[in-house]
Amino acid sequence: MSQSTGVSARAAAPRRARVQGTVRIVGAGLLGASIGHALSALGIDVALDDTSPSQLRLAVDYGAGRRAADTDEPALIVVAVPPDVTADVIERELARHPSAVVTDVASVKLEPLRALRARGADLTRYIGSHPLAGRERGGAIAARADIFVGRPWVVCRDEETSPADLALVEALALDLGATPVEMSPEDHDRAVALVSHVPQLIASLLAGRFLGAPDASLGLAGQGVRDTTRIAASAPELWVQILGANAEPVVDVLDALAADLGAVADALREPDASGSRRTVADTIRRGNEGVERLPGKHGQNRRFETVVVMVDDTPGQLGRLFGELGELDVNVEDLRLEHSPGAQFGLAEISVVPSAVTRAVEGLEERGWKIASTTND
Amino acid sequence: MSQSTGVSARAAAPRRARVQGTVRIVGAGLLGASIGHALSALGIDVALDDTSPSQLRLAVDYGAGRRAADTDEPALIVVAVPPDVTADVIERELARHPSAVVTDVASVKLEPLRALRARGADLTRYIGSHPLAGRERGGAIAARADIFVGRPWVVCRDEETSPADLALVEALALDLGATPVEMSPEDHDRAVALVSHVPQLIASLLAGRFLGAPDASLGLAGQGVRDTTRIAASAPELWVQILGANAEPVVDVLDALAADLGAVADALREPDASGSRRTVADTIRRGNEGVERLPGKHGQNRRFETVVVMVDDTPGQLGRLFGELGELDVNVEDLRLEHSPGAQFGLAEISVVPSAVTRAVEGLEERGWKIASTTND
Fold first, then answer.
1. How is chain B split into domains, by residue range?
2. Rounded Cα distance, B148 and B145, in Å
3. What is the ipTM of this complex?
């Protein structure tokens, strides 16, 4: 999935927008304003609307688009409002703009669709979508044109979807640098329950256990637990809405987790019971295999090998390193620079295609670099 | 906490060691070899021992110390072997070196102490300790002198501990740049159950749920779930030992978590039951408060600012970027290269000292680089 694709020279050149006409964005928060910034940068006319005058002013002042006017005739409307009002706003926009295609970016897709069906809304012009993008901070002020780049953008087609409308929403995703992914609302909601909603709850539940703990205990916390609980810092209001709107799939995963958790707790309670040791080992081993299935960074990309090079981080050293990798015609697919206080050197972890490892290692060593290790992860 | 400062000239300058005499290290894995590197750098005579000849050779070749000799008369012995053999090795070392102070670095403190008491070992010269440090990769080859810097190092004193011996073990921690923290073995084990052992299990259990999921679902995974499950990549063997050795405190936390998890699942099952909404909101809110109690800013370093530069990843591009940063006399404190499928470019997130931001941004823009953003996180 998340393979580091070679990035082409086209990148720098201004791209031509796929979306044509005015795009109306309802809700100028993080997602709405970020979409506005990206589309405006492509020269698209962006009309912003928001129930909060201050939020709207911020978004306009920061360049996400112009204020919407009653005379606007948008080709596409993006509804980027909180989940609990998404269906209302979609229904209203469909009625107000009888020729526009309406999409939304809510993180749950089945409930708004059900609500709209129940109200007998004309769904031929509605296509639910969900860009898997965000930041820890919300609001127009945190908006960034690049938050969608390289991220999946789920587009929910159903029997009522016209190919032209689908193409328009996918064009929006592509204009923002995202990768359109077609899914049914049901599959989408099950997927985000597993990879987003339950991880949020688990991080929150774990962090919640810190409340009763003495400071001295928490003083022993390291990067591991900080990563595990990082998203526990998310805003309650939004999450209560999201979890409520996707309760069924979330509960299914929670129940399965509760059973696994109970089993490993029992195994630790009865270390001598037959299979106890095995249960604990399997829990960790299944976790190893599961995390390997995640795309991207920590799901470490199996397509590349890592060459770890020692560098002292005086200015120019990295320049020399990557310059020489360039001379060796070694393309750096991904990299991490690691160093800590007191370290005598930094470690540059460079991901390269397997076929380039030998060339990189030998070439760098000839040029006097110390290779700390070469791994397969 | 673990902050990534630039490797300063000061770091290179030799510090005076607090520990005097020969330090014998039994177990030349990640922790043992890292301690060896740090002490050797301080000019201390380090005698390494390991049951694995190849591990020992690696550690010696990489400069962690010299091979131990039968004639060694160590002042301090550091036992850095797997948990399941820690007590045996401590007992043996106490007997073999009747004048040495013996400490260990095992991540569980009560069980080895109980085992040694049960065997009637002379505990007046033993002081259990636990440096809260590590890396994802293990073994002598992953060893680094700086992994203890700024980390807590728990030292377990009990009625049998002599002040002089305690001072020696704390001197070791201080020589390695760690912060000694005195705790009872019981308090230590409860603390690591909460901030280390249970988070490991929870990350493993969550990642284990990915095994049955379709690729398309996992394709929607973002940074949040990757962080939440990152430590699920840890090695099973070691964790089965650690969890087994600290079962009681771990089970206590697991049971409390299971109850919380059951409550929030029921609340989502019965959204209209009185207090359901409240239960979900409280779960997220308690998580907010809990995560705030963790030391360190979720690993983020407040001392640096981030400049995000767009790069196409053709060979030499990063070389050009870092070469020009060198020309601008901008030192890269840390960096991350981000790019994903379909991306039109990669994003190089470069951490620099605040005073260098303007110089970096202006200088790079003059040279034709596109700055995606400049943030404070």
1. 23-184, 191-293, 299-376
2. 8
3. 0.78
